[in-house]
Amino acid sequence: MDRDAAGAPDRGGTGRERWLDAAAGPVVRPYAVTRGRTRPNGEPLDIVTILVATGRRPAEPGRLSRQQRRMLALCRRPSALADLASDLDLPLGVIRVLAGDLLDSGLVDVQRWSPAPDPLNANPTGRPHAGAPHTDPNLLRKVLDELRAL
Amino acid sequence: MSSARSEPHPPEPDAPTDGASDGPADGSADGPRVALKILVAGGFGVGKTTLVGAVSEIRPLRTEEALTDVSVGVDDLDGVAAKTTTTVAMDFGRITLRDGVAIYLFGTPGQERFWFMWNELSLGALGAVVLADTRRLTASFASIDYFERKGTPFVVAVNCFDEADRYEPHEIRTALALDPHVPVLLCDARHATSAKEVLVSLVEHALRLVGGSRVQGAHP
Ligand SMILES: Nc1nc2c(ncn2[C@@H]2O[C@H](COP(=O)(O)OP(=O)(O)OP(=O)(O)O)[C@@H](O)[C@H]2O)c(=O)[nH]1
Ligand SMILES: [Mg+2]
């Protein structure tokens, strides 16, 4: 099943992109508010991708939509796409496209995760875990301890 | 500008936008530094919303099942949202831990037609909780199949409804034909402590799967 959320790159930008879901029908269809694009340029943004404002000033503030300005303000504090969708009360797909625009214009960045060196929980190799957060034993142990303590 | 937001992090127009990780260690005033996804799945009415609500504050979140073609101006997104009658609501909750670590919980409708959401949600997820009701165990088959196929770590939490007969976890494991390593536990999704235990069990399981466990014999 190919669809944008699963990460199949869409390089067309033809305005004809459609992903069909067996039961649900068209998953995404182009819509005018995002100028026909159904997904941001570049890498797909996960629902928990964290965006943070770069602090750069918009070259043409007037070109930002009201929603993008609100999004940019929210991103002064790192915010996941899910947070933005919830706070702005917009569907996730719309957030994705608007976020793509802010990324393209350098107003926000994706917050990259790098494991903090933790002397107490250092793994036997002493090297930080190189993979994704959800497979980092040190991070999972930390989450476990804190969950238990809640 | 700062609209009605219940979260304790209104945008601070005067705050510096860099040095985001220099704030308080409890992570409540700062945004998340790293976000971990946990899915809550299971059949109709099995307690997904209840579980997410028991461990976190539920917040509204919509995604699109299908969007109708609309033609509106760039500044009229609210109009678009109103016309997309096919948006799907998810249960969304966040647990903020210290040092900018946050758990994002997503409760998704169980029917197969919503699997397009799961495909995205399960990618890079810490794991999933499959809620089950002993009166309708078959309703959890689809979720279990799904996560087994995707290789997503999952636990099965049997919601103890008052009217339902009680079974031992091992009986449920057999009935569901689960791999021996998949944790099965009984829970009451209405109670924070019980719901939290489910998450603890899932994180322990995920940790075992990445080979970083220092937890011994944590679960039956
Ligand atoms: N006795 C008991 N009742 C529960 C438990 N969990 C949920 N309920 C009740 O079961 C009903 C359904 O729970 P929900 O959380 O709405 O279930 P859901 O999975 O979100 O339902 P859908 O979103 O409609 O699929 C509610 O009335 C809950 O109060 C439980 O552990 N024990
Ligand atoms: Mg529900």
UniProtKB/TrEMBL annotation, chain A:
Question: Where do the segments described as Disordered lie?
Answer: 1-20, 115-137
Matching entries from InterPro entries are given as: DUF742
Q: Where exactly are the transmembrane stretches of this chain?
A: none
Enumerate the Pfam families for this protein.
Answer: DUF742 (PF05331)
In Swiss-Prot or TrEMBL terms, this protein is called DUF742 domain-containing protein
TrEMBL record, chain B:
SUPFAM superfamilies in the record: P-loop containing nucleoside triphosphate hydrolases
Q: Name one GO molecular function term.
A: hydrolase activity
Keywords of this protein's UniProt record, alphabetized? ATP-binding, GTP-binding, Hydrolase, Nucleotide-binding
| Region (Disordered) residue spans | 1-29
The Basic and acidic residues compositionally biased stretches are 1-12
| Residue spans crossing the bilayer | none
- InterPro entries in the record: Gliding_Motility_GTPase, Gpn, P-loop_NTPase
Family assignment from sequence similarity: Belongs to the GPN-loop GTPase family.
Name the UniProt record assigns to this protein? ATP-binding protein
